[in-house]
Structure formats: C-alpha cells, structure tokens
Amino acid sequence: MTANYQLQCLICGQTYQPDEIRYVCPDHGREGIVDVIYDYDQLSYDINWEALTASADQTMWRYRALLPLKREENTAVLPLPVGGTPLIPAPRLARQHDLGGLWLKDEGRNPTASLKDRASALALLKAHEISPDKLLTITTASTGNAAAALSGLCASIGQPNVIFVPHTAPTAKIAQLAAYGSTLMLVEGTYDQATDLCHSAVEKFSWYNRNTGYNPYMSEGKKTVSYEIAEQLGWRAPDVVLVSVGDGCIIGGVYKGFYDLVQLGWIDKMPRLVGVQAEGSNYLTEAWAKGEDVLTKPPIQPHTVADSISAGLPRDRLKALRAVQKSGGAFLTVSDEEILTAIPTLARATGVFAEPASAASYAGLRRALELGLIQAGESVVIINTGHGLKDIASAQKGVALAPAPVHRIPPTLEAVIQHLSLE
After folding, report:
1. Which of 169, 265, 267, 316 has the CB geometry, 3.0–4.6 Å to 248, for a possible disulfide?
2. Contacts of 228 (CB under 8 A, 6+ apart)
3. Contact 210, 163 (CB under 8 A)
C-alpha cells in the first residue's frame, strides 16, 4: 500500500519514500534528521472532519488519519489509552497575569504520567508495521520520561525493550522502569553518552530505535497534543503556547501539529511558541539569540535540577529551532530556583502537580511577561509535560522555597484550635 507521506531531510532537502529509509538521511549520518511530509490537499480530500469530531474515541488515535500509519494498522493493539488529556482553565492565574485566558494541558494524566507516552505509542505501532508477526526489541535513551513511556507501553503488550538511562536520573523514574520490568542499563555517564551508547547498541543488535531526534515518528506522536488543544478550544489556536525544551522534540511536535491544522484550514493561525530552557541547559536559547548554526555549534555541559530538559546537545535541535522561528516565538531561560518555586505555585493555583521540567513552563510564562513577549489580554496554553510524582525530591525543595503552613500537633481538638488561632 502506498504511504500517505514522504520523508524529507532537514539538512539537504532530499525526499524519500518511507520504505527507503527507516530513520535518518543516509548522506548525513545520525545528524540527518528527517521530517514527515504530507500532501495536505489529498489529506483534506481523504479526511472526513465531521466523522473525526463526532468520534467517540478520546485517545490520540482519534486523529489516526493524520498520523504516518498504514491505513489498515490496528491502533487497538495497544490496551493503554494514550492522549485525551484535559485542558484545565487557570482563571486565577489568568487574572493575576492580566491574560485573556490561561489553560494547562495536563499531560501528567497519560498512562506513565508524561507527554512522552504519545511518541512511544506511535513507536510501538511503527515497530509492528516492520515486524507484524514478531515483537521487536525496542530501545531508547532517556533521562526518565521517554524511558518510562516506552517501558510501560511495552509492558502492556509484552514487548521486549532495553532502556539506557543516566545513573543520575531521579530515583522515582528509575523505580518506575524497574516496576515495568524493562532491561535497564544505568549508564555511568551523561544523557548524551547514554544516547550514543543506545545508537551503538541498535547498530549491533538491530533493535527498533525510539530515540528522539533520530526516529522521525516521535515528533509525529507528540504533535497530537496540539490537535487536542485546538479541538478543546473549539478549533481555535491560542495566541501563545509555552513548553519546556531539552532535546527539542516536544516543541517540534507541537509546531508540527498546529502546522498540520493550519494547512488543512481547521484553525486560522499558528500560535507563537515559546521554548523554555533551564539556565544551565540553554543550548537552543543561546543558538537562537546569537543566530548560531546548530549543526556546527559544539555541545555544552548541562546542569539543572530539571533532568527532563537537561541536554548538552539537543537531538531534535533543527525541528526545535524551526518551531520557534516559523511561529514568531522565542526561546528564554529560567533559573533552577524559579523552576522549583514554580512547582508549589502552580499546584496551589491550579491543583496540577508538575515535575521540574513542566514547572519550567510556568516560570517561563512569568519571564515572558516581564520581557514583553506576551501581551495583556492574550490567550495562553502551558503544556504540563510530566507529573510531579516523577521527582519528589525536587518537589520537596520547591516547597521549602515557598513553604505552606504545616503544624505538628498532639491528637487533641484543643491543639487544632490553638494552631488555627495562631495563623
């Protein structure tokens, strides 16, 4: 069956049919990141918008016709429901910041508690296309969330997987991987070293490679978050979307999703995308501000409490830069202290518990307002990429920076009354 898409190298522009290459442009090695290119005129003809919007399926597969899958591919092969996460209004914060509207897209509601489930779900189906009769071993390198996503979804269908994670990853994330039963490689090195080792293992053992910035379908899975945001807003695009950035795959996917909808005429504008980085992991912010070539810019030494966005050499940097440049957005940085303080601030104002990388997006909102990147009255969506239970140690540090009343009392009503009267 002819595929409904092609693959195009972001460096040289060469196009390929999906069966010609599996991951990257062969002329550029591991740097030859490719993009999935659709014929939007044909898609407009093929897709029944009324049927899509009337569908009872509330998962990411609601948008299956907009994904690079074989027409007959059975998405029901995955029992865990991925996507369909709530878009939560934050009216108190909207009033506080003089915004026309503010929403949190809470990706912590996914099966393994992060947006990365969207990419891993698509990875499993692409692996199934390659080997429909035998479960391939799938692998990835990760600071935790992508690994957990792949691990949990593989566990749901008994698919073998091997995970490469820096030994410094938060304990809770490592425990999650162990609970799912993955073959876990704790690498005594950085995330970038874990990624390189994972690539080498793929070449040696012919596993299916789920790595961000290498497998082009990962941003295609992540783009479904943009479809949901637009539909949940009544097929309107917000003025601004803020998302934390490490490797760059999420913001690249967010851009691709809104780009699809603009091309199809389902929304009337592209939102400005603001990529938020930690000050200690600011490769893309620096490259964007200085106009540097990210194909020649050397890696940095990252250091940040937000492990999910710690990357010395962002693997999906071409797509991340395109997302900000083409949308008229910006990159900015926030400090680790701002990130940690944002965890309890966001939780107390919305009830959403965010891990450090996710809270960075709210810290970025405050910084963007200070810089004049967002204007009064504009509509804004913050993507909460992962749940706060992913990193309790950092949450505790955040609470220490913004303490709430805690009373240790004897088990008497009089003690309760006494402490309440002291507040």
Report:
1. 316
2. 60, 83, 84, 85, 87, 105
3. no
State the helix-helix crossing angle for 249-264 and 116-130, rounded to 10 degrees.
80
CA distance 315 to 311: 8
Q: Helix 224-232 and helix 249-264: axis angle, to 10°?
A: 50
CA distances from 408 to 1, 253, 415, 416 (A): 67, 47, 9, 10
Q: Please tell me the pTM assigned to this model.
A: 0.95
Provide DSSP, 309-346: G--SS-TTHHHHHHHHHHHT-EEEEE-HHHHHHHHHHH
pLDDT digits 0-9 by tens, 240-260: 999 999 999 999 999 999 999
Looking at the predicted structure, is the pLDDT value of residue 191 above 90?
no
Question: Residue 346 in contact with residue 354, Cβ under 8 Å?
Answer: yes
Position of tokens 């891990």?
355
Which amino acid, 25?
C
Token pair of 199, please? 């690539």
Say what the pLDDT of residue 5 is. 94
Do 359 and 387 contact (CB within 8 A), yes or no? no
Whole-angstrom Cα distance, residue 76 to residue 154? 14
Quote the crossing angle between the two packed helices 249-264 and 317-327, to the nearest 10°: 50
* Residues contacting 407, CB < 8 A, separation 6+: 419
**Mean pLDDT, residues 59-88 taken together:** 89
Q: Where are the alpha helices (DSSP H) in 40-114?
A: 40-46, 49-54, 91-96
Tokens of 235: 């097929």
**C-alpha to C-alpha distance for 100 and 98, rounded to whole angstroms:** 7
Neighbour-count burial of 48, counting CB atoms closer than 10 A to its CB (0-12 exposed, 13-18 middle, 19+ buried) = exposed
Task: With cut-offs at 50, 70 and 90, classify the pLDDT of residue 328.
Answer: very high
Q: Is the pLDDT of residue 1 over 50?
A: no
| 328 burial type by CB count under 10 A (0-12 exposed, 13-18 middle, 19+ buried) | exposed
Reported as a single tens digit per residue, the pLDDT across 371-420 is 999 999 999 999 999 999 988 899 999 999 998 888 899 999 999 999 88
Measured CA distances, 4 to 73, 122, 126, 133 (Å): 13, 16, 14, 23
Write the DSSP symbol of residue 188: S
For residue 423, pLDDT over 90 is answered with no
- Could you give the CA distance from residue 18 to residue 70 in angstroms, rounded to a whole number? 11
Q: Which of 266, 259, 227, 264 is nearest to 44 (CA)?
A: 264
